[in-house]
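quick one, two chains, predict together pls
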Amino acid sequence: MSIKIGIIGYGNLGRGVENAIRQNPDMELSAVFTRRNPESLKISTETAVVANISEIEKWQGKIDVMILCGGSATDLPVQTPEYAKYFNVVDSFDTHAKIPEHFANVDKSAKASGKVAIISVGWDPGMFSLNRLYANVILPEGKDYTFWGKGVSQGHSDAVRRIAGVKNAKQYTIPVESALEAVRSGSNPELTTRQKHIRECFVVLEDGADASKIENEIKTMPNYFADYDTIVNFISEEEFVRDHSTIPHGGMVIRTGKTGANKENQHLVEYRIKLDSNPEFTSSILVAYARASYKLNNEGVSGCKTVFDIAPAYLTSKSNEEIRATML
Amino acid sequence: MSIKIGIIGYGNLGRGVENAIRQNPDMELSAVFTRRNPESLKISTETAVVANISEIEKWQGKIDVMILCGGSATDLPVQTPEYAKYFNVVDSFDTHAKIPEHFANVDKSAKASGKVAIISVGWDPGMFSLNRLYANVILPEGKDYTFWGKGVSQGHSDAVRRIAGVKNAKQYTIPVESALEAVRSGSNPELTTRQKHIRECFVVLEDGADASKIENEIKTMPNYFADYDTIVNFISEEEFVRDHSTIPHGGMVIRTGKTGANKENQHLVEYRIKLDSNPEFTSSILVAYARASYKLNNEGVSGCKTVFDIAPAYLTSKSNEEIRATML
């Protein structure tokens, strides 16, 4: 009687979902869908099947929720509306500016099929969004701050790796401690991009590459680095493998605001996460919202939802009586 | 077209609700209900009425949500089920052990009347409960910690004031910094009551009272102080009025947990608040959930709810489109 989950895409996120399912006894992994030859893919759940994505329609009625683990740039805009025709789906679509368009496409598809689709699930968008909303409704007169890091930015790491002469690279986004302190003090500072985050790069060069030229190329790269104070470290391949093989991340959402007859009282609300593995944390959130999509659909709900639309009780396998008695 | 709010009880919480309503343009205060002679009560909202609680039934249809600002010991167990017969209601019932019983009583009443009642709204129970739930569903294998303070405990302050020879007193609950550090480090410490919080008292003595006898009486008081390291400071009435007239509070909910194929990755989730005014922050939360009760009831929902049952989108006056575009 457990909830049957399918995974589409078996990268870091998909593998994280597979691990997370094992931490949730009310769920089981039924199948992983891949664009590759299924024979070429080795998964760690012995009871689950690997299938080619072209066969997915045959799984209608056999899988309760599909968790989409592709990328926001090209995979999810196509996949989420497509698979919401057949399954409850959850995705981590994170291109903030395109969320309204994605929502509309997915909603149309999920309403037609009578399924529940929950989009933009993760920590930002996701848990950070929830914390922005909760803090805003409590403190309507106040100011929001979001800091990211210390953690690996995949996009910035890719940008550095694309530079000629760079063999490998990793970029860490780091909140500026003095900016954080100013925010937490309640002084409501106006902070520029440069004042909020530092960018630090660890770069392995190709033989004979010109370090100072590459350093300059990184620091002046528009959109990615030009607006930041950037530190560039050149290291050996050994050091890179030894010290920079994990994908940590974190960050905080802070709101400060005032209440009282004369706005004399100041309040601070801070939500902070510190993650050894960014994809595994995101996967764990996806799995909890997969449960919610299943429970909601069983109640006859359909259409596209975001974390804002999901009552917290739907996320847990525990009964309402139990969570009121133990967590309230 | 604004949401019409009634307040029952005009202590710190009731006054906080009155102030919070002014920060929410979609709401207006219609009336404050009191057990006292209405003439004796001066409120700060000129457009609102003060009425005796005995007249409350006449307000059916004129008030959308009643916010109950009485105490959990004797007021709310009676008032919330009673007024849910006529109105959508929100309360801050915080006697954790009695929540199941209170829920059942209120649910029966609200289902019969077709109204929505949201109970145990505030920060603990309330925002802290939500954060426990969210962190638990994301990290099923982990450990929860709740710290309170630095802040005033009304119950402990009252207990000290009841000692013969004590003229006035205030008690602050303070998290132990080393315990917090151990928790945040991810070492999953087992912490005793004494290891988690210190209690600090500021006491004004009556003329001729025996300080050392009173200090001993405080430190050995069962349930309140005996299990804690307690600091007792005797101060003058002037110092008391100057330094201890506000009601600050705060605290944090922390969960650490592991993910990964071999549980090799550690994560920390922390929700932290720091409040100049405990009652005003609680009041601001009550007002946001009053909006949710109104919106839910307009959709035909009835019965007793807690923060776990309320989708975050119901808390805001903004449209779903707007919050998706600006906060997600």
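The longest helix of chain B spans residues 278-298.
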